[in-house]
Amino acid sequence: MLAYITRRLLATIPVMAMVAVVVFAILRLTPGDPAAIIAGDDATTEQLEKIRQTMGLDKPIPLQLVQWVYQLLQGDLGVSLLSGAPVLGMIADRMGPSLALAFGTIVVTVSVAIPLGIVAAWKQGRMLDRAVMTFSVLGFSVPTFVVAYLLIYYLSIKMGWFPVQGYKPLSDGFWPFAQRLVLPVLALSGVYVALIARITRSSIIEVMGEDFIRTARAKGATERVVLMRHALRNAAVPILTIIGIGIASLISGVVVTESVFNLPGLGRLVVEAVLARDYPVIQGLILLFSFFYIFINLVVDVLYPIFDPRIRY
Amino acid sequence: MSVKFDRVAVFGAFKVGAALSLASLISLPASAQTITAVMQSGLRVMDPVVSTAFMTRDHGYMIYDTLLGINEKFEIKPQMAEKWEVSTDQKTYTFILREGLKWHDGAPVTSEDCVASIKRWSEKDSTGQVLMTMVSEIKVVDGKSFQVILKEPTTLLLESLAKLSSRPAFIMPKRIADTPSSEPIKEYVGSGPFKFVDSEFKPGLKVVYEKNKDYVPRSDAASWTAGGKVVNVDRVQWLAMPDQMTPVNALINGEIDYIQQVPFDLLPMLENKSDINVEVLDKLGSWTYFRFNHLHPPFDNKLVRQAAMNAVGQEDVLKTLVGNPKYSRTCPSVFGCDTPYADAYGQDVVVPSNIEKAKELLKEAKYDGTPVVVLHPTDIAMLSAQPVVIASALRKAGFKVDLKTMDWQTVVTQQGNQKPASEGGWNIFSTYSTLATSGDPFGNTTVASNGKKAWAGWPDVPEIEKLRLDFARATDPAERKKITAQIQKLAIDEGVVAPLGQFSVPAAYSKKLTGVLPSPVTLFWNIKKAEK
């Protein structure tokens, strides 16, 4: 297992190097110019050229790539072209809200979706199953921002229970931290609960038709034991995969939720950086996200044998 | 080990604790208040000389001061300057600084700082560049005064030093102003009414300013950027919220105090709230317009430009963009209506949509069906409506239109592309500017017509360039008005820029705030905040 993990970790290096080069190339091919953003739309060509020189954007692209890679090897992601702030510091600042939102959403999702999926599978074809599946379709269909606005309207503006927006770090106290996360987590959980409940249900239904379930029943196991000990454990692999993908996309791609609730997370930073063509920030973020995806996939792969002993590395 | 509680001692300790808590509450300054404002976007670029972004300009007004200010009557008043003296030949201006001006690091403001700041600013600013061609020398007289010696008399000196937007002549310490104008400054020390709190700055998200307790405001009443900049709160924090609904909800819920710009479609949510004011603070407002690429067919033909101007109607644009006549008006003037140089010439060409006239002109111009590429940015609400209306009107008139969708930054980059549309160039783009920046022939870069050196569109109308220089030299207001009227006529006849109408975006703020100043730029001095 250790050799497998080491091999996988080493494999991240060429993958990330490839991601770095591709992202660097795509950004330079995208129309748009950070110098134009700084100078304003009435800047003359001469003024733009001077700013480009100051930023080093006038140098040949391969040279810019070599300089960036050299910086990376020294652990330096560079500085934002717009604000001059170090990219690493900007990412570190934005990491907290994204991790808190992702963690909160996954906890709520797993605690709600897996029991719902099990119940739906257990009561397959009955009212309860239909109710869960109806909820699931709704969860998929209603956009997150609509759920978010409804939650804000009823729970913040009408009831006054939660703030409309903002983020406080845990260091400011647990309640201020949690109070600002409740609504975004609820808004975001809907779609993930729907997804994971469906996967759980279908995986369990599939497993329930297997021979070993019939054997378990034949030897007198109760339905609860059959479901929880035999079916769920064997259905865990696809559920675990979906949870892993969910975590990775939650950290990098919840722009709408972060925007509606004014959470200063990584998703917003990506959009801001792309719209402003802030190359070093985009490059730093894409590298980080690719690392997240690789790391979470590795964790999920490492967890498989725990649930399914047939899997060996 | 056992611990015995002495009730008297415990009660005594409680009393001491309560007294300390109370004392700490009482010792808080009565005005320990923060104004939380949501601005139109996040602050990222900090140098108001390098960038013309409005956020950067507004940041400049917080931490820097200007030598001169301008009030709501368009009168130029001394601000950092105590006064200025003019020689009898009108060529030498001596500026004398006020007593008590200090940088945020405690050092005194000197005339050397002013000279260095004006020089750096004039390298970048379009008006400053013209001004410098008329200046023979700027020299320090002593620590508190300096002279500007002109080659010929001009009022452009005072006007540009009092310029409101978009690149005001902010005064910085000499060591900072000595930074080359192509490089952004890295230290943010001013002498303005607020200090920048570096430790709390989150680029694009949050900026915090604290009251500059050493600031000595003028004694006269505040009006626009002139008069006393009296700060009545301890802190002002600016937040950026990407979803426009969020600040509206946050203001209703009492989490913020001020929204710089409320989108028109969300105004009904705030207009009937008893504890919220909705008010147009920038009474001058903004104007929207479109530009032709004069270098290539079909708009290298004046008749085709006129056809397009006749086809597009301002009412149609304003209905789509604003949708509320309370906040918009038609206006043919390239210097804006309700401004000193407003002029009605071209009313019949640019205000109504006259498709028949456009068809006639196209026929006369022998338009051959060359496709017209219209750039269409979709990521900024204030810019996405105009191209759609323009394209629709042009199609009705008989143009073949290719509406190209992109983000605003791509439009900005495309603007500089002088190639024909068939090779990746463009034919029409539209945008908007505040009238604070567009009210005269120098601030308004859209009327510059010096061919390939002009702003995107590259109109070549030497008569306009001559008139702009005449304007710089003219000192009589009546003569200047005459010159701007001639520029207006040429700009419309030659299709230099096509006005699409004017609009004002209201601000909204909690009724806890009083003394919010109407101004074309966003100002936070003079504001008081009530506890409840």
How much β-strand is present in the residues of chain A?
Answer: under 5%
Unreliable segments of 5+ consecutive residues of chain A = none
Radius of gyration of chain A: 24 Å
Shape of chain B: globular
- Helix-strand pattern of chain A, N to C? HHHHHHHHHHHHHHH
| Tertiary shape of chain A | globular
Taking strands numbered 1, 2, ... along the chain, how are they ordered across the largest sheet of chain B? 10-11-12-1-13-21-14
Number of contiguous helices of chain B? 17
**In angstroms, what separates the terminal alpha carbons of chain A?**
6 Å
Helix content of chain A: over 70%
Transmembrane segments (chain A): 9-27, 99-122, 134-157, 177-197, 237-261, 281-307
Membrane topology (chain A): Multi-pass membrane protein
Family (chain A): Belongs to the binding-protein-dependent transport system permease family.
Protein name (chain A): ABC transporter permease
Question: Describe it for me?
Answer:
The complex is a heterodimer of chains A (313) and B (532). Chain A is an all-alpha fold and 313 residues long. Chain A has a domain at 94-265: Orthogonal Bundle (MetI-like fold). Chain A has 15 helices and no strands. The termini of chain A are close together. The relative contact order of chain A is 0.14. Chain B is α+β, with helices and mostly antiparallel strands. Helices cover 31% and strands 20% of the residues of chain B. Chain B has 17 helices and 23 strands. Chain B has helices at residues 7-27, 54-63, 111-124, 126-133, 156-161, 174-177, 245-252, 268-271, 302-311, 314-321, 347-350, 355-365, 381-397, 408-415, 435-438, 462-473, 477-493, and strands at 34-39, 65-66, 68-70, 76-78, 81-86, 92-97, 135-142, 145-150, 170-171, 194-196, 206-211, 235-240, 258-259, 276-279, 286-292, 328-329, 372-377, 401-406, 428-434, 498-503, 507-510, 513-514, 528-529. The longest helix of chain B has 21 residues, at 7-27. Chain B is globular. Mean pLDDT of chain B is 91; it is low at 1-31.
